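Lab notebook, design round three. We kept the backbone fixed and only want residue identities now. Task for the bench partner: fill in a sequence for the structure below.
Input structure tokens:
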């Protein structure tokens, strides 16, 4: 009897360890995503702050994690680092409403396997978490607009300048106040 239970968990699409840590400061979204992931077979723990996410990651490093980039009390990348310090086989997805190439590159360097822009639905999150190594994500149907490409470039230079507005403005040959206005706006579609 025990052998059949072990075989059943080994053949589960998620593997024998279904632990999932969700870190997002949008409470209603977090609860909806947690319920949706539980129905897909995950054992979910939720955190609404960097501090709570760090505590849970240190106490019980998960096999899967979905971490929001910007939280009220800091940067979600800190949670990814804490997970990676304790477990190197975690599938980490970065989820954010402030999607840009520079932060995606930083997230991947820290060990994230994918980067999804909000609003992402549970199916997209599940697909990203369970994607096999080497399996490619689907190509988006709509390419980026020229405004979005410009915004992405500004964000990349801003990250390269370690988020220093004055240095970024110099690098882009742009007035500092103009750059500050651009950085304060949401990403164009």
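Proposed sequence:
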């Amino acid at each position: 009897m025990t052998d059949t239970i072990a075989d059943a968990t080994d053949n589960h699409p998620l593997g024998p360890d279904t632990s999932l840590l969700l870190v997002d400061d949008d409470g209603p979204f977090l609860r909806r995503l947690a319920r949706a992931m539980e129905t897909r077979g995950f054992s979910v723990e939720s955190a609404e702050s960097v501090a709570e996410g760090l505590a849970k990651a240190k106490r019980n490093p998960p096999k899967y994690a979905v971490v929001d980039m910007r939280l009220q009390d800091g940067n979600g990348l800190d949670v990814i680092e804490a997970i990676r310090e304790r477990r190197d086989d975690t599938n980490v997805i970065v989820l954010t409403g402030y999607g840009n190439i520079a932060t995606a590159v930083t997230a991947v360097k820290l060990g994230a396997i994918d980067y999804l822009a909000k609003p992402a639905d549970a199916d997209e999150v599940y697909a990203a978490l369970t994607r096999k190594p080497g399996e490619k994500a689907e190509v988006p149907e709509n390419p980026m607009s020229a405004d979005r490409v410009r915004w992405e470039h500004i964000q990349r230079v801003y990250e390269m300048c370690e988020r220093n507005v004055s240095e970024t403005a110099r690098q882009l040959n742009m007035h500092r106040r103009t750059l500050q206005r651009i950085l304060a706006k949401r990403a164009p579609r």
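Keep this in mind before ordering anything: Residues 1-10 have pLDDT under 50 and may be disordered.
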